[in-house]
């Protein structure tokens, strides 16, 4: 077995030197600089030279150092729960896959991979599956993110290309955000847009069912009915035609299909018809259409609210149609812009990580493309047809067609819709292989083979962001245990399956070199297979040049200009070089509202968390803002159902039910609700939103619907609650013995804080929690059974854990038990805790600068602050990524209103 060669290790670098790398989170692709300080902690700062962020980072990026830990890591390979050697594990995987292929054919094997993989990882696993196993059954969690945008781009442009760049936000006169909470999901771009608005007066329109933090900078918010995007944009296309503001010259020279698209759009040729379908006010629709007509420099950014829909591809094309009709494609400050969710979703698209593409923008169904790939990879085993997309793949496992599944760097048991069904499918699959860096996840529970992979800060390779910028992720720290790069794991399996020559890569740089070469095949001027994706300028890149590679946007050879824009001259990737209008129509929702399921559930990210919290869940700073899974409910709906703020709510759909904590707010309109995607059974007894979302998908892209699930909401009546702090995580079996209706885990400084709720009164709770105590222990107790009890448990004079049990109605009066761990159970804090005098710490508002609510309120009450800017100047709140500024604004309004009332009363 060959040893992995790391291009860059910490031993090759002075630990005090800042090393450039790329953030692990969203598709903005921010550059970071990192170094190991004297205490061994990884320090993080923004890379001021990186064009994606120019030094800015969001709260998650700033906290990356907090998430780098050996705790909870998968440290060694195992088979059926027993630790083994790499050689044994790799041989077992290779022989098992070969046996299944020999008996059932290549389509009995499937890979499910991730936008967290680096491009080199993606390239190798795609090559093994499609080129040598001979099946295209490889799909990615990016199917849940941007597959509809991909399909829309291909239909309109002939190739999956995002035409614009981030600079377009700096120079646009109008920016339309559709289905994008930019402030929380892509905070660095939000700050860029906010700065442009302040400096240039850029108009901003937010199209979103919820009033999100992004609306803070909006000139107009359009809270449309979920699933009605096509009605709104078909209405815009009809409006442009009515006012004779179609770009007739551009249409004639560079497009086809307008008549069919306009015919379809005529259904919404009046503002009244649009209002009826979208639920929007007539005046607001007219304002949007007028602003779009008046500003030729318009950028329309769209994200998951558009893509995650059973009509996601048509949604995308309805937006693209309006830009094509006005010639606003790839021009400075004037373009449609799909922004991706994951750090390397774009890189995965480039190298064929999706089941319906080959690699390097070469496609199935094109004999010339297949011939190019077969010759380049020197294989006669190339898959001849598209593979199964994510949901179809798991359906095939359920039916027995797929016998082996290899999951890499993702958690489908949590992230896929109808997740309880997915868990049952994984349980029945004959062979489940999981490569991951963590030791526990819902998916790992079903793995027969576990392979330890490197995590962020240990991996080395490239990623491509939403504007096609290729950046390096560099190795910053050594890998705990026996973790290996994903590309190495896959390559070693490929060799053992009999394809040694095709997967004999000395380093990740050699994989990148091969990928670069692949982008050039059949890609010369005049070739019928010519594509925009072309990295020919990087051919011959040495290992050293790869190691020092600076961020570069493709296409590096660009017939338009050196700006990195695409399609500026109307030269599209279709056979005739013309963009396609796609006729689309607004359809009724797949899951209709009924009297039983009368509330629409929307889902998405919150400010400081990422995906299923395997990384961000480790950071105390990121867990201080929103500590548990909430469901946002409009006050009207809450009153109608007897639901109060902070009460537990049972959310029930046609496929499942889960428990959330109610947050009553006007951010959602009546008839709608919102819940975050992050919680699951590893960190909460409820709050797993995918368990209530059915697996309905877009028929073209295969992307699931996550934004419009009909549900019913029922309040749960609890009597008591408890908080428990401990230095180590509790096991699932321990948690189950407590009999709590609800529990949630929160990472805090020094350990963990658990929150519980019970149906029983608080008298019975302490005895339940005391089952955690070892046989030889001592306790300090204060309080009584009726009004609550506070307990500290010792062993050998060392505090082990502490808890507080109390009537639920006293929840807001409890001491901040987490301070016991912060002070390492200081005797003074223990005394204050037991006596009930331990002051509650103020909640964090600004995660970047760790500014509390108390600090902000003091600046407004006792200081001279009277505005958000004043607060920022005095406290630094909001001066990081800025995603908290809307919340700060609400605090300013509340405190200033209170001060005004007091002055009037005085």
Automatic annotation (TrEMBL):
Its cofactor is Mo-bis(molybdopterin guanine dinucleotide); [4Fe-4S] cluster. Keywords: 4Fe-4S, Iron, Iron-sulfur, Metal-binding, Molybdenum, Nitrate assimilation, Oxidoreductase. InterPro entries: Asp_de-COase-like_dom_sf (IPR009010), BFD-like_2Fe2S-bd_dom (IPR007419), BFD-like_2Fe2S-bd_dom_sf (IPR041854), CT_Nitrate-R-NapA-like (IPR041957), MoPterin_dinucl-bd_dom (IPR006657), Mopterin_OxRdtase (IPR006656), Mopterin_OxRdtase_4Fe-4S_dom (IPR006963), Mopterin_OxRdtase_prok_CS (IPR006655). Residues 16-72 form the 4Fe-4S Mo/W bis-MGD-type domain. Gene3D superfamilies: 2.40.40.20, 3.40.50.740, ADC-like domains, BFD-like [2Fe-2S]-binding domain, Dimethylsulfoxide Reductase, domain 2. Pfam families: Fer2_BFD, Molybdop_Fe4S4, Molybdopterin, Molydop_binding. It comes from the Bacteria. Belongs to the prokaryotic molybdopterin-containing oxidoreductase family. NasA/NapA/NarB subfamily. This is Nitrate reductase.
